[in-house]
Amino acid sequence: MARINWTTKVASTTFTTITQSLSFNVGRASYFDTWNGNTVTFTVRNNTGQAAAINQGDLITIGNDLSLISLYFYVVEVTFQDQISAAENTATITGVDAIGQILQFPISGEPGTYTNALDQVSALMNQLAPFNPPYPDPSPVPGRAIVETSFTETTIGQRIVDLILTENSTFYYDGQTLVFRPSSAPGSISWNFGPTTVAGSVIYDTLVRKYPNANYPNNVRVTSTTNGTKTATVTGIYRRNYERNVLLTGSTQQQDQANYYANTLSDDDQLYLDVKMTDASNTSAKCANVLDDISAMVGKRVSVSYTPPGGAATSGWFVIEGASVSAIPGITTFSFSLSPQKIYDLFTLDSSTFGILDTNRLGW
């Protein structure tokens, strides 16, 4: 079975041989969490002051021996655990990715007037010259949400997060660019999850199925500065609330979005999954497949095979919301958060009564 060997570097200094533990995340913990950037934490031996020269903002590079993919973060904190015996001294380095960085970057107004969310993201990115690496210029998509162009002082990062929520979109950070995925039927990754009985699958160690709970809100409130709050409710025995702040300017579009969330998210036949796997349960080739997609898999769909107790073998498509990775010498554990495809599997419905034109959103 496989064993992933991780590499850690801060600026130009390599800490691989003295790293005691490593953890990082990509994406978000669930569909109902907001975006706040990816984070990394790793602990190194510091018996001779090896971590003394690390500075805030230094570039952290996380790599491995099975894939060419690297993950990039920026140092935000270093803590030193000084023990009675100097030989036991350690240091813990914490970092955030580009979204985490720009959440700290202030902006007092829009750099102009833009007709859709991706245009606005593009303009905001152009203000990020102090940050490395470069950021892309997203191409406008006709018919996307028309969003507010004036707002009170906030940060560029928060504004981009608000735009992502408004578009019901996802993003990923590949260490060079921030890539935004629009609200549309998601593409698939090249591998799938399954038990040992499903040939070719990435083998999971545990699978948690989550049925009706707070994941199925039926009382929705969608709020914007321009239109105030629009509500939608689906009749049910229990009332479960869900609130989302958006940047929409169109009252009808905002109400249709509230209706869409209420009708789609309250469907308690939909299944959410938490999937855990380890490198030790898989081959090097399977681990390499996962690692190749680790930065770009958020917002893509994956097939999962499982057999409920007393039931028949089944499989289904799920969208990856995010993953956390934890590594100590000898083993790496991956934990994935998956949502039902239905909440992303949208399509354009050219009807002003039953859909929102050119936005891939149902209005009922």
Task: Explain this structure.
The structure is a single chain. Strands 1, 2, 3, 4, 5, 6, 7, 14, 18, 19, 20 and 21 form a twelve-stranded antiparallel beta sheet that branches. It is built from five helices and 23 strands. Residues 129-145 and 346-364 have low confidence and may be disordered. With 364 residues, the protein is mainly β.
Instruction: List SSEs in N-to-C order.
Output: EEEEEEEHEHEHEEEEEEEEHEHEEEEE
Q: What's the overall geometry?
A: globular
Tally the helices. 5
Whole-number mean pLDDT: 80
Unreliable runs: 129-145, 346-364
What's the alpha carbon Rg, rounded to whole Å?
A: 22 Å
Instruction: Give the biggest beta sheet.
Output: 12 strands, antiparallel
N-to-C span: 50 Å
Work out the helicity level.
Answer: 10-25%
Structural class: mainly beta
Total strands: 23
Q: What fraction of the residues are assigned to beta strands by DSSP?
A: 25-35%
SSE map:
Elements: E1 6-10, E2 13-14, E3 19-27, E4 39-45, E5 59-64, E6 71-81, E7 90-96, H1 98-102, E8 106-107, H2 117-125, E9 154-155, H3 156-166, E10 170-173, E11 178-181, E12 193-194, E13 202-203, E14 206-210, E15 219-224, E16 228-233, E17 241-245, H4 251-265, E18 272-278, H5 284-292, E19 301-306, E20 314-328, E21 331-340, E22 355-356, E23 361-362
Parallel strand pairs: 12-13, 15-17
Antiparallel strand pairs: 1-2, 1-5, 3-4, 3-20, 4-7, 5-6, 6-7, 8-9, 10-11, 14-18, 15-16, 18-21, 19-20, 20-21, 22-23
Helix pairs in contact: 2-3
